[in-house]
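Reading a protein record of the kind used here takes only a little practice. Each token is a code from a learned vocabulary of local backbone shapes. With that in mind, consider the following protein and its fold in token form:
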Amino acid sequence: MSGGQVALVAGATRGGGRGIAVQLGAAGATVYVTGRTTATSRSPMNRPETIEETAELVTAAGGRGIAVQVDHLAEEQVRDLVARIGAEQDGRLDVLVNNVWGGDPLTVWDRPLWEQPLQDGLRLQRQAVHTHIITSWHALPLMVARGRGLVVEVTDGLADHGYRGTFFYDLVKSSVIRIAQAQAADLKPHGVTALALTPGFLRSEAMLDHFGVTEATWRDGVAKDPYFAMSETPAYLGRAVAALAADPDVHRWNGRSLATWELVKEYGFTDADGSRPDWGRYFADSRRGTAGDPQDYR
């Protein structure tokens, strides 16, 4: 990514969104980071991370972080956000990352559709699918007007992933991929690229807490789940997005469903520890019973 680009990372309070925002900042971008949790108020997720912290990390990495509290289901808030970006950046928006999720408290993993709370499932669709649509609807005209830009829809799994284990979660993640594909078709005549991107086993703040470890001691979590040995930091996902944003031929990915473990072979970035986790190959080999030492896949 060339310095001076302007990015909006919707859903950048923590996890993958924060990792993406920081790595775009490291590439010299001005990054608007949005979310619901600020230094003075928490979202229903009730996590301690804030958008101000993310903005500070973006600036410390070499970019310019701008924190804006936004509920991306509130259309007027999204409208005002995009109007602010247009006014402050002379109509420029180079990268839009739709990463809004916040669905962990609404996701049920151990029951079929008809035994899950319907209103929670419908709320999950609004929170993690409708937010992406609302944000794109307001933001895309900035890109179309300039005839350039990159839209990244962050999801879980690839287009051919198969069932993700629980109905409403699967519907969200597959819908986000389809949102990317549909945007790609609409945007193609206007020189704007849209794609979907998945991390592997993302080692977010919430996941570290779930395993009772810190980033420094994360390998202790492997005792609880062997797959955790192949986990990757949010920086890995962020570096994948930064590589895409820097690619002058990024339009070749238009409409594609991509993964960090695929893009690393194209762009050669690394995770924070210098490794290159290949979650896709490890998971496939594990399903076949042929997986070796996880270190051989990093």
